[in-house]
Amino acid sequence: MIGQLKGRDFISTQDWSDEEIELALQTAKELKFMFKNNIPHRYLPDKTIFLMFFDKSTRTRNSFEAGITQLGGHAHYIDVSTSQIAHGESPKDTGIILSSYGHAIAIRHDLVPGEGNKYMREMARWADKPVFNMQCDVDHPFQTLADLMTIREIFGENLRGRKIVVSWAYAPSYAKPMSVPQGLIMLMTRFGLDVTLAHPPEYKLMDEPMRIARENAEKAGVKFEVVDDMDAAFEGADIVYPKSWGIEELFDRPEEALKIAKKYQDWICDERRMKLAKKEAIYMHCLPADRGYEVTDAVIDGPQSVVYQEAENRLHTAKAIMALTM
Ligand code: CP
Question: Whose CA is nearest to atom 1 of ligand 1?
Answer without folding.
Answer: 286
